[in-house]
TrEMBL record, chain C:
The protein's name in its UniProt record: ABC transporter permease
One GO cellular component, as annotated: plasma membrane
Any one biological process term the GO annotation gives: transmembrane transport
Protein topology in the membrane: Multi-pass membrane protein
UniProt keyword terms in alphabetical order: Cell membrane, Membrane, Transmembrane, Transmembrane helix, Transport
A Pfam family that the UniProt record links to this protein: BPD_transp_1
Organism whose genome encodes this protein: Ureibacillus terrenus
Principal subcellular localisation of the protein: membrane
Length: 326, 330, 278
């Protein structure tokens, strides 16, 4: 088995760019899954190739990408709960200290909290309230939990119910309750809006925003650009395992468009922006990509795009784009 | 509400069992009638030579040997329903009372080994499942694999050699040759006698429950709520205690109850090796000495025994299911 | 810069080449048992009073018994016997499973019948049924083979039944049905070829159970007759000589039996992995 270790040293220039007050900072993150493919060959799936993200306290950053593009594994990688047959490379810093596996272990559940995507993330045999209780260190846990339940719009009686009797919307509120109960500074919400109707969605986004106003950083992983545009301060667009653009929401609103061609395609696919169908798919994670990952679908691609990989470059104001021509 | 559902369930199962039992009885009776065994000869045994033809006739009359099979069957069934399973030819005693007496001994043996195997098997299964792919897991898997390929009686003989012969910790249990029941055993002897056969059955019985628990633990660990629990920082023993335990224990117990059939079979073999005076030894005696009434009695009883195990297993499962549906935590 | 990373999965999933190699190894072991056993003549296991009660040595690998018979050769021919009994009874059991599963996929009445049969058989402990059948048939090879054949089919029947039920709803079967193909045609052209791997795996996996039960029933005195050097007989006899300290009479025959049973178990499992890789 040959593992190709890719080391990429950051230049001094790049290091200078990194501001010191980030809550979480991810640079050149890659995640490769190794598995037995057809025949007896070992296959490497590059689910995450070159991912960048940074977030301040009190900020909401949305990671927007197509469904099934491996976004959930991003959360796993940051939390250190990625599958055993996967390899993580890159550089993650939390509060300016490298986030090692050991530190991830210490911080997850305490400083960093996941809001899971699936409503089956609750223990099916444990009372809902008990599952929230584990975040509370003080005495009188039950009362605190019931108070929080009321805050997020849940009947305190839900405390004694087990998950199979709760609706998806109620379980989402329990997740929010957990975030409220915990002291976590960084909350990673994995597709928190899946399967919610318009009203529930707005309420959930509001609750996430409240959490951010509480001086926590919220990373919201989603395929729903529209929802992201409602609350996110920054939007990181995820394509083929890479961050192709980090945009400031206000600037996008002002300019009415994104910089990167893929982000623009996502944007134009929104109903209010013309409903233009996206005519591209994700490249297979098993593929090695030479040049720009989006080149084969890009209307503006040149010869250079097919041969040379564009790096994510700063375009001012903390905004970044991975395109030669943007 | 729960009690009502469970009651209904048990009733339904019992009705099904009664029909099944009837089928077993008919089948057994048919099989036994097909056998070439001459009931008079097996009843008289060595006395065959000294008994006159008239007396043989009388005995044949008494047992209804010359009646049509169907008539014999109904006669037998009638007696069976009245609780009269006939008289054992080997023990010269009422079959029902023999079964009662022997079952007490067998029950002690099976209960002890069943509990030991259950606890040990669950623990091993959890260790293997929680550490999937590690050395411990592979060692446990190998153990189960080898044990599944090992004859129960061979383990029994090995234990006998090591603990009784070499270490002299237990009686050899062969004071009487195979085939003769030792009638005069004291209670202390019985206690000493039970440990090795129980150990045999436990060693063998572990395999199934371990592999099942291991798979269940792996399935649970693969679930979304464990991923979330990990994301919450739980791991190792905390993870097990909070989430894995309650999600794997009841299925494990349920599966363990469903293994009564194998337990009974294992007991037959272990009892044979250690001359342990239980049902297993009795059925072997019955078989070797053409003791038809005792044989049929034990077949029916073992069916009942397996039914109880399966019933308990299913009741447990239904209970968990109903509780989940009714939203009660466990 | 130091990249924190974990190592790739501690163990790689088994590659298919490894699987094939394993199977080949098992097959060769299997050949040793079968062919080796059939070459043993009477002279190798005949009594030799000058050589009795010997412990294991180079000359007598497994030692000798109280009649001076070489235990290695006795064990080998015992295994050979077990193999033949196993082969025969497992084959019949597989056939029963095939017929019953095809029947149960035919219509729901047959299905109910098969289900009742399975329930019936599973309601009595296997060994008890075996004793009963062996008793009724008066012991001997016939009793063992019939007993094992009649008791071991339920698990495979369930597997095949489930497979067939699934297959019945498949599109190509439905199309054949609409085209008016006969049942027999469909069984031969759709069902049989499809369940053949399952059948083969099931057959191999029946082996270990058949052999274990054969030895158990023989050990109890209901199976093969004492003249035949079956492992069950060897072990039952050896119990009389335990107090004389002749442990080798127990250890080696038992270990050999385990080896053979485990081999079939491994072979079945590997075949299964090969046919449906995860």
């Amino acid at each position: 088995m040959n593992i190709v270790y890719k080391f990429r040293d950051e230049t001094n220039e790049e290091i200078e760019k990194i501001k010191s007050n980030f809550l979480l900072e991810v640079n050149h993150l890659s995640l490769t899954i190794e598995r037995v493919g057809k025949g007896s060959d070992v296959e490497h799936l590059h689910v995450i190739r070159d991912f960048h993200l940074n977030i301040h306290q009190g900020e909401v950053v949305a990671i927007v990408g197509a469904s099934g593009s491996g976004k959930s594994l991003l959360a796993d990688a940051i939390l250190g709960i990625h599958p055993k047959n996967s390899l993580i490379e890159g550089n993650i810093k939390y509060e300016n200290q490298p986030l090692t596996e050991k530190r991830k272990k210490r911080l997850r559940g305490n400083d960093i909290l996941l809001i899971p995507q699936m409503t089956n993330a609750l223990d099916p045999l444990m009372k809902a309230g008990k599952q929230v209780e584990s975040f509370i260190k003080q005495k009188n846990k039950q009362k605190i939990v019931k108070d929080i339940f009321q805050k997020v719009g849940l009947d305190p009686a839900v405390y004694h119910q087990i998950p199979s009797t709760l609706s998806g919307g109620m379980i989402r509120r329990i997740f929010i309750a957990m975030a409220l109960a915990s002291k976590a500074k960084l909350i990673i919400a994995d597709e928190p809006t899946n399967g919610l109707d318009a009203e529930a969605l707005d309420e959930l986004l509001f609750q996430l925003k409240m959490l951010a106003n509480d001086n926590r950083g919220i990373v919201m992983i989603t395929h729903d650009l529209e929802a992201a545009m409602k609350i996110a301060d920054k939007i990181a667009v995820f394509y083929a395992g890479e961050t192709v653009e980090i945009a400031d929401r206000k600037n996008v609103r002002k300019a009415g468009k994104f910089r990167h061609p893929y982000s623009r395609a996502l944007w134009n696919a929104l109903p209010q922006n013309g409903f233009v169908p996206i005519e591209c798919s994700q490249p297979s994670p098993a593929e090695e990509i030479i040049g720009c990952s989006f080149a084969s679908y890009c209307p503006e691609a040149t010869k250079r795009c097919g041969t040379e990989k564009p790096e994510l470059r700063e375009v001012g104001n903390g905004e970044m784009v991975r395109c030669f021509y943007a | 509400m729960l009690a009502f559902h469970i009651g209904k369930f048990i009733l339904k199962r019992t009705l099904k069992f009664v029909t099944l039992l009837f089928a077993v009885v008919v089948l057994t009776f048919m099989l036994v009638s097909l056998s070439p065994v001459d009931p008079i000869q097996s009843y008289l045994g060595a006395e065959m030579m000294v008994v006159s033809e008239e007396q043989k006739e009388e005995i044949a009359e008494y047992y209804g040997v010359n009646q049509p099979k169907l008539q014999q069957f109904f006669k037998w069934l009638k007696m069976f329903l009245q609780g009269d399973l006939g008289t054992s030819l080997v023990y010269r005693q009422d079959v029902l009372s023999i079964i009662q007496e022997k079952f007490v001994a067998s029950f002690a043996l099976m209960a002890l080994s069943w509990s030991m195997a259950g606890i040990l098997g669950y623990a091993l299964g959890v260790i293997a499942g929680m550490n999937k792919g590690t050395f411990a897991d592979r060692a446990i898997k190998l153990y189960c694999f080898v044990l599944a390929s090992t004859p129960t009686f061979w383990i029994a003989i090995l234990l006998l050699i090591v603990f009784s012969l070499w270490l002299g910790l237990f009686p050899i249990g062969l004071g009487t040759p195979i085939g003769v029941v030792s009638e005069q055993v004291t209670w202390l002897d019985r206690l000493k006698h039970i440990l090795l056969p129980a150990a045999t059955l436990s060693v063998i019985g572990v395999s199934n429950i371990t592999l099942h628990t291991r798979q269940k633990v792996i399935d649970v660990l693969d679930s979304e709520f464990i991923r979330f629990a990990r994301a919450k920082g739980e791991e190792g023993f905390t993870l097990f205690k909070r989430h894995v335990f309650r999600n794997t224990l009841f299925p494990a117990i349920s599966v363990h109850f469903a293994s009564f059939g194998e337990l009974f079979g294992g007991a037959i073999l272990a009892e044979q090796v250690f001359s342990y005076p239980g049902l297993g030894l009795a059925i072997v005696q019955a078989g070797l000495n053409s003791d038809v009434p005792l044989m049929m009695g034990i077949v029916v009883f073992s069916t009942f025994f397996v039914f109880i195990g399966n019933l308990l297993a299913d009741v447990l499962y239904t209970m968990i299911d109903l509780r989940m549906k009714n939203g009660e935590a466990i | 810069m130091k990249y924190h990373s974990i190592s790739f999965g501690t163990r790689m999933a088994i590659s298919r080449k490894g699987l094939l190699l394993k199977l080949l190894g098992l097959l060769s072991l299997f050949l040793i048992f079968v062919i080796g056993g059939s070459f043993i003549g009477e002279e190798q296991i005949e009594a030799n009073m000058s050589q009795k009660n010997l412990g294991p040595s180079i000359r007598h690998l497994f030692g000798t018994d109280w009649l001076g018979r070489d235990m290695f050769f006795r064990t080998l021919s015992g295994l050979h016997l077990s193999f033949r009994v196993g082969l025969f009874s497992a084959a019949i059991s597989t056939l029963i499973a095939l017929i019953l599963s095809l029947l149960s996929s035919y219509n729901k009445y047959f299905d109910a019948m098969v289900t009742i049969l399975i329930d019936l058989l599973l309601s009595i402990p296997h060994l008890v049924t075996l004793i009963l059948i062996a008793f009724v048939l008066g012991g001997g090879v016939k009793g063992v083979v019939v007993g094992i054949a009649l008791t071991h089919w339920p698990s495979l029947t369930r597997v095949l039944r489930a497979e067939l039920m699934q297959m019945k709803t498949a599109e190509y079967v439905q199309i054949s049905k609409k085209l008016g193909k006969s049942r027999i045609w469909m069984v031969r052209n759709h069902f049989l070829p499809q369940i053949l791997p399952q059948l083969l795996v099931g057959f191999i996996l029946l082996f270990p159970h058949a052999i274990l039960h054969e030895s158990a029933i023989t050990f109890l005195g209901f199976g093969l007759s004492p003249e035949q050097p079956a492992i069950g007989i060897i072990l039952a006899e050896s119990m009389k000589y335990l107090t004389a300290g002749m442990w080798w009479l127990v250890l080696f025959p038992g270990l050999s039996l385990i080896l053979m049973v485990a081999m079939f178990e491994a072979m079945g499992n590997n075949f299964r992995k090969m046919f449906n890789p995860q």
